[in-house]
Amino acid sequence: MLFAGFSTFSLLYSVQPLLPLFAAQYRLTAEAASLAVSLATGPLAIGILFAGFVSDRVGRRPLMIAAMFAAGALTLAVAVVPGWSGLLVLRFLTGVALAGVPAVAMAYVAEEVDASSVGAAMGLYIAGSALGGMAGRLVVSIVADLEGWRWALAAVGVAGLAMAEAFRRLAPLSRNFTPSVGRPGVLLRSAGSLFTDRAMPLLYLEAFLLMGVFVTIYNYAGFRLM
Question: Does domain 2-225 have CATH number 3.60.20.10?
Answer without folding.
Answer: no
